Every structure is written in C-alpha cells, then in structure tokens.
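Figure caption, in words: inputs first, then the predicted bound structure.
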Amino acid sequence: MQGSSGLTSEDQRRTQTAVLGAVDSQEALVLPLEAIELNTFRRQYAGQTFWCGSWLGGCGRQLTTKLYVDRVCHFAHHADADTARRPCARRARDVTSADHLYVKAAAEGLLEAQHLVGEVVCSEPGPAAAGSLVQLQLGDGGRLTIHMNAAVPPDWKSPQTAGRIVVEASVPVDRRTLQRLPYVHRIRCDSHGTSRRVLIGTQTARGTQWFRPEQCTLDPAGWLPPR
Ligand SMILES: [Zn+2]
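Bound structure (zinc ion present):
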C-alpha cells in the first residue's frame, strides 16, 4: 500500500538504524537525520548494502536510504516484487534501536584494549527483543550481564550477581535496591555523528556519574570506574 508520501505503510514508521553488509551482520548504522549529512553518509558507504537485520528484529530485507529536505531522512525497504510477503513487523526503529550492538562493540573494544580473553554475546530474538541482554564472559570465569531492556529485569537479590549487573539508563531500579547496594552500574548511548557513543555510569543515591568505557577497568568483579 502506498501512502501519500510515496512510501509503503511499513516505511511510514521511520527506520533510523540498519546493519551493514549482510542480514545477520552485527555492525550497526544510524542514518543521519539531515539531508546534508546523508550525502556524506552515502559517499562514505558507497557500494555497500544496508539491511533490516535479524539482530535488529528486522524482516531481513535490504534497505535503501531516503533523502528529504523538508523532514528527517530515514531507511526504507527496497521495492519488493513479492506482494504476498508480509509487511515488516520490526518493533524498534528509532535511533536507539541498535544500541545493543553498539554496547557489544564497545565491550569487545574494552576486552581488546585490556588484553583480556573473553566473549560478548547478544541475546537472540525471542519473546524479548534481540539484544535485550548483552553478556560479557571473561576467560577467567568473570561475567557481566548488561540489561538493555526493562522487559528482562535483573535479579538483584543474589549478592553474587548484583555487582555484575549493568542496566541501561532508562531501565528503572527500585529505591530499595539503590539503597541496599553501594552503587548500580549503568550504560547509555549518545548520538555522535552517524554513530552512537557508549558511556558507563555509576549510580548512587546521590546521582549518576558517567565515564567513557576506556576510563574503566574490567576485572572478575565487574567493571570498575576510575578512582
Ligand atoms: Zn524490515
């Protein structure tokens, strides 16, 4: 069905994120909103392909970039001859919708920078969105679980795991937990050009202090903020 803007109904909900090169890629992209930035983006990624990828909960089709001067630019699905195909049911499409992939990449960067053996894994799409959990498993048995989605709440009750939980900035933590624990690890992504910059926070009863990942250290107890 074509809407008044010439877009199919599935593309009227603007899609700002994609993955690069293949449907199962974990290399995320955020499309710039402004036409002038989109021209630069198109030059930067000339000859490469963008996908409504499986790690974004997408339909697996290829995406193209739509340039507008009177409203925000966004990705749109390639025109599809298969009219029997069901419209894309992807739920999250805004600039935050690939944040789990940026968080995974940042955690991998931290492992590499600290010469640590380990692995970072996004949870598979299922009842909860892909990447609702990002798990960092260190070679020495240490583990961090990053909760990106309030629909998969952390278990704060276990003293062994509470220090190894990181929660995305918008995931609520109840006041009792905040009072009981010395601090809660937070994570958030901010827009930075056509990418997302990951910040790690330490929340106490007094508020949250934010740091760049490279300012923090990883050890079996979790991440440690700068002293
Ligand atoms: Zn799609």
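The radius of gyration is 19 Å.
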